[in-house]
Specification:
Layout: E1 6-11, H1 19-32, E2 36-40, H2 43-48, E3 52-55, H3 82-94, E4 99-104, H4 106-117, E5 121-126, H5 142-163, E6 165-171, H6 178-186, E7 191-193, H7 201-213, E8 219-224, H8 231-242, E9 245-250, H9 262-280, E10 286-291, E11 294-299, H10 300-310, H11 316-320, H12 324-350
Parallel strand pairs: 1-2, 1-4, 4-5, 5-10, 6-8, 6-9, 7-8
Antiparallel strand pairs: 2-3, 10-11
Helix pairs in contact: 1-9, 5-6, 6-12, 10-12
The structure holds 6-O-phosphono-beta-D-fructofuranose (F6P).
The site of 6-O-phosphono-beta-D-fructofuranose has 9 residues, from loops.
Length: 353
């Protein structure tokens, strides 16, 4: 057990519903152990700027149901520099912060590792609507964002049915198609196109024509933003090739807001408490992950390499630095993740008409 007097908590990167629930869980779990909690505003930028407040249990009251993040968030370029890092470390020392819980995406975890090697114990919690952190099956905010998407697509479908139209809906996810695949499946989309998997445009057009000839009046196509420069052009081609009047809708940042779902509130709370437990056990440079329904801890370097491997960015040079045992474990995680993604994608395709 490591002795802590005060830890800090911050949220960084794109906000996600459920981040507040994680902040609340971190704060209250630490306070219960007699450890003070500094709420750091504006992510790593706020850390460098010494923008923080000592939290009581009341500071996190009533936030479990709120979207956004009470700690605010930012993407801080300066933090990636040596000067920025030195500033952050000296602010931690000045404020007697000897441990940090950071909630965000992979950029956030890279920052956590840098702090950790400089002596600040850090634990990361995955918070992003994209679910694009390959080491964990789940990231906080994903479920809420998807529920927002399906609610909106259901509304779009109503008007498509009235007017016998097609609507091509672009959803967020950065380079990951997870939101598109699951919401496409859940809304009965006639086609789902994502950047990381091949898409048969011809087959999709033929499906729309055939279904229209069978009397179908509404057509939803879900496209991930990761399929770059595609959705608007595809909308035009659908109309030209099928004769079905078509519209394009980009859902945008509405997907990032709103009251978190039960899944996000519960997962964020479990991860928040787990993060504090691990920190107080003396662990550092780890990220909290959900793997096969269990909350586990993973070394951040390992987790970032899993992510690189999954995204085909792991170079031979990277591989040479990893033990065969770790490479095998990483491959296992990637294969499982890919299998889950393919199962969802295939079910979406099989059940869409
Ligand atoms: O990572 C979350 C996310 O909403 C992505 O889905 C999207 O690509 C990006 O952030 C948008 O970023 P910004 O908030 O800078 O517009």
């Amino acid at each position: 057990m490591t002795e802590f007097k005060r830890i800090g908590v911050l949220t960084s990167g794109g906000d996600a519903p459920g981040m507040n629930a994680a902040v609340r869980a971190v704060t209250r779990s630490a306070l219960l152990c007699g450890v003070e909690v500094m709420g750091i505003y504006g992510g790593y930028q706020g850390l460098m700027d010494d923008d923080m407040k000592l939290f009581t249990s009341r500071d996190v009251a009533g936030i479990i149901s709120h979207g956004g993040t009470i700690l605010y968030s930012a993407r801080a370029a300066e933090f990636k520099t040596e000067e920025g890092m030195a500033k952050a470390i000296s602010v931690c020392r000045k404020n007697h912060i000897d441990g940090l819980v950071v909630i965000g995406g992979d950029g956030t975890f890279r920052g956590a590792t840098d702090l950790s090697v400089r002596g600040i114990k850090t634990v990361g919690i995955p918070g992003t609507i994209d679910n694009d952190i390959s080491s964990t099956d789940y990231t906080i905010g994903f479920d809420t964002a998807m529920n927002t998407v399906i609610e909106l697509i259901d509304k779009i479908r109503d008007t498509c049915e009235s007017h016998a139209r097609c609507d091509v809906v672009e959803v967020m996810g950065r380079n990951a198609g997870d939101i598109a695949i699951q919401t496409g499946l859940a809304t009965g989309a006639v086609a789902v196109a994502v950047g990381e998997l091949p898409f048969d445009e011809e087959a999709a057009i033929e499906r729309i024509k055939k279904a229209r000839n069978n009397g179908k009046r509404n057509f939803i196509v879900v496209v991930a933003e990761g399929k770059k420069n595609f959705a608007e052009g595809f909308t035009t081609r659908i109309e030209e090739r099928t004769g079905v009047e078509s519209r394009f809708t980009r859902l945008g940042h509405v997907q990032r807001g709103g009251s978190p779902t039960l899944r996000d509130r519960v997962t964020a709370s479990l991860m928040g408490q787990f993060a504090v437990d691990k920190l107080f056990e003396g662990q550092s440079d780890i990220v909290v992950c959900e793997r096969n329904s269990k909350i586990v801890a993973m070394n951040i370097g390992f987790a970032l390499n899993v992510d690189k491997m999954f995204k085909n960015k792991l170079t031979d040079e990277d591989k040479a630095k990893i033990s065969p045992e770790d490479l095998r474990k990483m491959e296992e995680i990637c294969l499982e993740r890919q299998a889950k993604k393919m199962q969802l994608y295939n079910t979406a395709r099989i059940t869409c008409v």
